[in-house]
Design brief:
Number of helices: 6
Bound molecules: guanosine-5'-triphosphate, magnesium ion
Helix content: 25-40%
Shape: globular
Family: Belongs to the MobA family.
Strand order of the largest sheet: 5-4-1-6-8-7-9
Order of helices and strands: EEEHEEHEHEEHHEH
Radius of gyration: 15 Å
Enzyme class: transferase
Subcellular location: Cytoplasm
GO molecular function: molybdenum cofactor guanylyltransferase activity
Catalytic activity: Mo-molybdopterin + GTP + H(+) = Mo-molybdopterin guanine dinucleotide + diphosphate
Largest sheet: 7 strands, mixed
CATH architecture: Alpha-Beta Complex
Length: 189
């Protein structure tokens, strides 16, 4: 299989969580470590896109945003510029239920006719569990220059496929933004 670089976006403001989102605990373990555990069987080429030293305790490569405060679009831009792989798995840092199985399925279903492949469930698109080609770097750069930073707008501009997942596996897409949501998650699992 072609080499895949996995980039985990850890660069937001965590304003709803009010503490570094990738480091809050699920089942006693930081979110970021759950995501790394799911990602590692796919590729050990892992880079964390972060602008702080909070993740320095992890031995994986860290890269910074090239343009600060540009949201996930800025994070993906930096991830792709720093990647040596054509195929890139981009993940947010707030999806602790994600599994290797689902990520492998995304990679298996990605087809190089597309520049981006993302999951959806019940017609809700999850752009931060996706495969992104290095080919879209100029589109990201332009979006940043124009401050056109919505992920859904980015998808409109690239040749993408949406892979629908149904049934109980879709719980893996659950993203946790606030302390209330975190407490709900820890109470449930
Ligand atoms: N590298 C990078 N990642 C980002 C940036 N903004 C958001 N992200 C990441 O994108 C993912 C989804 O973003 P949000 O859920 O909005 O996270 P957030 O912005 O930290 O949290 P809120 O302040 O509550 O919106 C998370 O993994 C964030 O870490 C950014 O400017 N740079
Ligand atoms: Mg945000």
């Amino acid at each position: 299989m072609e080499k895949v670089t996995i980039s985990i976006l850890c660069g937001g403001k965590s304003s709803r969580m009010q503490s570094e989102k990738g480091l809050v605990l699920f089942q006693g373990k930081p979110f970021i470590e759950h995501i790394i555990a799911a990602a590692l069987p796919i590729s050990n080429e892992i880079q964390l896109v972060t602008n702080t030293s909070d993740y320095d305790y992890l031995s994986y490569k860290k890269i910074k945003d090239i343009e600060l405060d540009k949201g996930p679009v800025g994070g993906i831009y930096s991830a792709l510029v720093h990647s040596e792989s054509e195929i890139n798995l981009i993940l947010s840092c707030d999806i602790p239920l994600i599994s290797t199985e689902l990520l492998s399925e995304l990679i298996a279903k990605h087809n190089t006719d597309f520049e981006v492949s993302v999951f959806s469930e019940a017609n809700k698109i999850h752009p931060l569990i996706g495969i992104y080609s290095k080919k879209i770097i100029p589109i990201l750069k332009k979006a940043i220059e124009e401050n056109d930073l919505k992920m859904m707008r980015l998808l409109e501009k690239v040749n993408h496929q949406i892979i629908e997942v149904a049934g109980k596996r879709s719980k893996q897409f659950r993203n946790v933004n606030s302390l209330t949501e975190l407490n709900e998650l820890n109470a449930k699992y």
